[in-house]
Design goal:
The complex is a heterodimer. By secondary structure, chain A is α/β, with parallel strands linked by helices. Chain A is built from 13 helices and 15 strands. Chain A is globular. Chain B folds into two domains: 30 residues, no CATH class; 72 residues, 2-Layer Sandwich (Alpha-Beta Plaits), CATH 3.30.70.20. Helix content of chain B is 15%, strand content 16%. In chain B, strand 2 and strand 3 form a beta hairpin. Chain B is elongated and about 55 Å long. The chains are: A alpha/beta, B alpha+beta. At the A-B interface, helix 9 of A face loops of B.
């Protein structure tokens, strides 16, 4: 039986972790992820989970302890944000390179300096090539659903890669909304028991982990990871299908909104998609064919599928809540634009927009401005700037 | 926590990469090596002939040896060969020539001495 509840994003994710009941959680609190650790440690203290909770002194240690637990054969989780992700950087690569199926909720927050605790995607975007699968969530419902699905994706024998489930700091992590959560039993059945192929605590089958692999083997090891990434979309879709049967909520690699006949469209991740939807509806009422594509899975990047979905659109505006600072657009812009290059014949015009850095409000008026911009480009074939900063004081 | 050994989820084709290299003379490709760079064949260091690294060689004088086995205790590579509690020789395929055995050999015996590898050029 599913039930409707009012929860913040962090409460929803902590509940998902409680229902997963991982063997080990090693985590360090950081704003805006703190509530997850707080709620989860109370579940541990109250005996509501069987988890061994490891209190560590930093995020570097949090990810290290999680890696150790996962290598030992445990289902291990952690959670972080911003500077915390930055501090666990080197261990992120070790988790992925060692093919440990760790699942980590990642509450998006800007990186210092200047110090800022509010939402943007600079933290997770920097880790996009670390070998972690990245799933972005629009709201608390999606964050809850994605964390549960991430366990199955990460541990699938065709994948065996860590997964970070991203959602927007404060906007989603601390905003309360109604969502549907499942009972413990069906979740327990869905995630199943963890049966690793290799476990260091399995002393009857000793092996070496983390060896030196130099010019003659490192390259092959990385190639294997790329292969696992390439195979993961099928697993992600299969898991989504099974989850849909259970929950009634359907997920794919990305979500499209009024895109089928769209002349202009935006591509945007996470909570900003919720801001954009009513603006698109308003434009539709005025006869303007606007649409949206909201990526869910950013790693692996579903380039071919995305290009196909956007192929008929005249002008695509890609919105990044992170900036490469290199003057040529954010990460999402560059990857969407690169994906569209593969299309035969006439390709959509693609422009980029940087928005919401450090939690700067992203309003329906901002979306309206961007779509008006795209419409003008569709009518004239011209644009003023390849990349525009939205909502900035000049 | 227990590892399933039913072969269902087996992802690794070559169990011993070291053995495969010795047997075929080729390094396996990316599809065939264990995931996560795991080394699945415990004790495979034996297949790595570190004796190639040696610039100095310990030479054992059986006449002088008192079989105290200090060399066997201290050798970092397990290159001292022992049979029935007695020193019987040196495994030159694995001895790196570090000289610890010669250093630890008691002065009154001096059964192990180091010599330049160039003296043994065949």
């Amino acid at each position: 039986m599913a039930k409707k509840v009012a929860l913040t994003g962090n409460e929803a994710v902590a509940l998902a972790m409680k229902q997963i009941n991982p063997d080990v959680v090693a985590a360090y609190p950081i704003t805006p992820q703190t509530d997850i650790v707080q709620y989860f440690s109370s579940f541990v203290a109250d005996g509501q989970v069987d988890t061994e909770f490891v209190t560590v002194e930093s995020e570097h240690s949090a990810m290290s302890a999680t890696v150790g637990a996962s290598a030992a054969g445990a289902r291990a989780m952690t959670a972080t944000s911003s500077q915390g992700l930055a501090l666990m950087w080197e261990v992120l690569y070790i988790a992925a390179g060692s093919r440990l199926p760790i699942v980590m909720p990642m509450v998006n927050r800007a990186l210092s300096a200047p110090i800022n605790i509010h939402c943007d995607h600079s933290d997770s975007m920097g880790a996009r090539d670390s070998g972690w699968i990245q799933i972005y969530s629009e709201n608390a419902q999606e964050a809850y659903d994605n964390v549960l699905q991430a366990i199955r994706i990460a541990e699938h024998p065709d994948v065996q890669l860590p997964v970070m489930v991203c959602y927007d700091g404060f906007i989603i992590s601390h905003g309360m909304e109604t969502l549907e959560v499942m009972d413990d039993d069906p979740v327990k059945k869905f995630v199943g028991a963890y049966r690793p192929e290799h476990a260091l605590l399995d002393v009857d089958h000793p092996y070496t982990m983390g060896p030196l692999a130099l010019q003659d083997f490192y390259f092959e090891s990385r190639r294997q990871m790329a292969d696992a990434m390439e195979h993961s979309p099928k697993v992600i879709l299969d898991v989504a299908k099974e989850y849909a049967k259970l929950s009634g909520r359907e997920y794919s690699l990305f979500e499209t909104y009024k895109l089928d006949d769209a002349e202009i469209a935006i591509v945007v991740l996470s909570s900003a998609a919720g801001t954009a939807r009513p603006v698109i509806d308003d434009l539709r009422k005025k006869g303007i064919k606007a649409g949206m594509l909201k990526p869910r899975v950013f790693r692996p990047f579903p380039a071919a599928e995305m290009a196909k979905a956007l192929s008929h659109v005249k002008v695509v505006g890609v919105l990044d809540r992170a900036d490469s600072l290199a003057g040529h657009g954010g990460p999402l812009f560059n990857e969407v634009r690169s994906a569209l290059y593969e299309l035969p014949g006439k390709r959509p015009v693609v422009t980029g927009y940087i928005f919401g850095l450090g939690g700067r409000d992203f309003t329906p008026e901002n979306v309206d401005g961007i779509l008006a911009d795209l419409k003008q480009t569709a009518d004239t074939g011209k644009y003023a700037n390849l990349v525009t900063y939205v909502g900035i004081r000049e | 926590m227990a590892t399933e050994d039913n072969g269902k989820n087996k992802t690794t084709k070559v169990k011993s990469v070291a053995r495969a290299i010795i047997d075929t003379g080729k390094k396996p490709g990316w599809k065939d090596i264990p995931r996560g760079s795991l080394i699945l064949d415990a004790g495979n260091a034996e297949l790595y002939q570190t004796g190639d690294w040696r610039s100095e060689r310990p030479v054992w004088d059986a006449e002088k040896c008192i079989h105290c086995l200090f060399c066997w205790v201290y050798c970092p590579d397990g290159a001292i060969e022992v049979k029935d509690g007695k020193m019987v020789g040196i495994d030159y395929k694995h001895c790196k020539g570090c000289g610890i055995c010669a250093h630890e050999c008691p002065k009154r015996a001096s059964a192990l001495t180091m010599h330049k590898e160039s003296e043994f050029e065949e």
